[in-house]
């Protein structure tokens, strides 16, 4: 499975106008489908939603800047490990991210877009898990 970066950018552009609704939907989906991860988050998610939105934007903006992207993901992975996030939490987050993007992308969402996001999320999660393993190892 490979990622078409132009599809990542165009689908994210379709989602961007929805702003804070995107991250609210993401957390609602995540907690409804995986309530076991709720204790890993603060009671009030406003700041967390903003950080997630900023991280997604930075991810998409740096898709072709590998050094910056990997450094950013490793930093996120180390921080998440410090919050108690485990490797087994990442699939739930990925499923909620894909569901959220699909929901807001509308007609911009296709099977090829979903495949590209799944591939990108695979790199995101594996990079973050590896960095987190160094912290918790």
Automatic annotation (TrEMBL):
Protein name per its UniProtKB record: Flavohemoprotein
GO BP terms, alphabetized: cellular response to nitrosative stress; nitric oxide catabolic process
InterPro entries found in the cross-reference section: Globin, Globin-like_sf, Globin/Proto
UniProt cross-references to Gene3D superfamilies, sorted A to Z: Globins
Gene Ontology molecular-function annotations: FAD binding; heme binding; metal ion binding; nitric oxide dioxygenase NAD(P)H activity; oxygen binding; oxygen carrier activity
Family membership: Belongs to the globin family.
Database matches in PROSITE patterns: GLOBIN
């Amino acid at each position: 499975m490979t990622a078409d970066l132009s599809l990542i950018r165009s689908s994210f552009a379709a989602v961007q106008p929805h702003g804070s609704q995107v991250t609210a939907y993401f957390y609602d989906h995540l907690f409804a489908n995986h309530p076991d991860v709720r204790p890993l988050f603060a009671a009030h998610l406003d700041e967390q939603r903003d950080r997630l939105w900023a991280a997604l934007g930075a991810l998409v903006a740096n898709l072709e800047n590998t050094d910056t992207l990997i450094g950013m993901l490793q930093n996120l992975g180390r921080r998440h490990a410090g919050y108690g996030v485990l490797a087994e939490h990442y699939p739930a987050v990925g499923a909620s991210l894909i569901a959220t993007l699909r929901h807001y992308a509308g007609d911009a969402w296709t099977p090829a877009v979903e495949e590209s996001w799944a591939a990108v999320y695979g790199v995101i999660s594996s990079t973050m898990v590896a960095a987190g393993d160094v912290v918790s190892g």
